[in-house]
Amino acid sequence: MSNTSKSVIDLGLIGGMFDPVHNGHINIALSSFELLRLDELQFLPCGKPVHKHENFASPVHRLAMLALAVSNFSKINIDSRECQSDEPSYTQRSLLAIRSENPDSRLFFILGQDAFNSLATWYNWKAIFSLAHFVIAGRPDSEINFPEELLSEFENRHVGSIEEMKQYKQGKVLTAPIPLLDISSTMIRNNIDEGRDIQELVPSLVAQYIYTQKLYISEGSV
User: Fold this and answer.
1) How many Å is the Cα radius of gyration of the chain?
2) Per-residue confidence band for 218, with pLDDT thresholds at 50, 70 and 90
């Protein structure tokens, strides 16, 4: 059923480790906010990843860096529920809770093409379509590498415009022309460990925090 009421709140969500948050993340957030005409955008940092992933900074540090990174943006905030929980982080469970707290909102879960390609490996992934829209950040010609089951969902749910997506509360997929900067958290951690500058890769307050807290420096580099 379509829902075009002006009273509906459009809430964007960006998940990830943010280890550390960098200018690429902030660029996606700002571009998504404008392109999707959101009322609010929230970073949803992962607390305890289910898939194999090495944590380099604690949830406390990652939350602190995110807070510094978004401090100048009044409508970009942080949902810290996963980092404050001792339970493994499942996107579907987090979105279920967010949906229950925002029953009348349209939720837009924003992620890169590579992350969407692996969606079928996520916990209870099909249920996510009943909770939110998916917005794939990337060019229309981004490489698509879907297993058959995900390809079927993509083809059935894909829409060609933001306007079409906003006719529905959840369950659609849009590939959006959101620019992706050639920056990764791995690149930043390596630069720090090897003594290279990161000032152009992360917000200035985040760089100061990393240096002050001596994050991402291996024992052999001290």
Assistant:
1) 18
2) confident
